[in-house]
DNA sequence: GAGGATAATGACAGCCGCTGACAATTGACA
DNA sequence: TGTCAATTGTCAGCGGCTGTCATTATCCTC
């Protein structure tokens, strides 16, 4: 099914991601040069840029994959579910799959530490937010499709998705900036945040949680 | 009150912002070099980088100012208002002030066109999102202060602010990517989106708007 | 299994964003 | 007016990124 050429490319790409992650995590993103990454994999700098459009991309490669998985999960849900419910359920059910997909490329612990690097590196944080926005737009299209609304005219798909992804990013950030990070902890924090979406918007916060 | 030196700096900064905006709007962000901006104001490239940390900063200078105004508006509101209400009211009441503040630096129409450039330029969009995130964090602190909650423990300030700014960014984007842009239109679109925050989260979208 | 078509890589040159260092100029203030 | 501090220009240089072209490696067919 896959020729030698194809497999070799895959291996090079994975090696670049792995080497980059290790360098970023140990010595920081800004202080790591593309030359160092390329050298670690024994390819030329030019080759690196044939695999990744820029330095950010290799740092966000795994991250982007997880987000893409989430989107695909949403698309696969039954149409009977209400929009918000659909997003929430997908979140709950994609978690294990994503964990496996990550470990196919890089050790889980390395990825988790990379998440922290992303949060504290302005350039990466910015790129991460932009990438999330792209998926957000695709999500709007999907929610509109599911509900049969025109995404250009009815603001509700936009509003729902914007609020939801805003909260998810916030949760991810809150989790990533803590000391101990684990997939389970991420899941817990994210769920907690999404659950608070309704209460937080209510007029009165008097009642204790 | 201000010495000659001070005034000169102010003038140089404004001139750089203005020249940059004009160049960005007419020939695009990526194709405009810092050298061109510096040359238009007749300063050295090195001087440009003494006024702005990077090329993005000059492009987002006015934008950032408006966001900062909004934040200050929130801080000035009476404590009696509920969190969401406070954000909504601030939005409604800062609009004219912001318009004036913009025109003190650059023609309004130029700024509006610059907003569109930001939306279609990946690097600027990313930086814009990151800057918004910084303000988001400050907003969380402020909302927590107003409600007397611990922003580290209670997720509601985070969740509310994340949802709110997410929707605002989405509204801004929806507005900026249209053909005709005006301040009034922006206000209308933003208000509409924020108003839909509650309905969009409800389980059932059956009822027509 | 030899051949040519095609794809991946390396080497090189060069642009642009950005920074450090130092000297020259300009405004502030006694 | 002279001294001090702030602002600026110049220059050298690094790192991200791209175009180009020759070289090498895989693929496919006969």
UniProtKB/TrEMBL annotation, chains A, B:
PROSITE patterns, per the entry: HTH_TETR_1, HTH_TETR_2
SUPFAM superfamilies (alphabetical): Homeodomain-like
The keyword DNA-binding appears for this protein: yes
Keywords for the protein's UniProt record, in alphabetical order: DNA-binding, Transcription, Transcription regulation
DNA-binding feature ranges: 33-52
Pfam families documented for this protein: TetR_C_14, TetR_N
Domain HTH tetR-type: 10-70
Keyword Cytoplasm annotated: no
Full protein name: TetR family transcriptional regulator
Organism name: Streptomyces axinellae
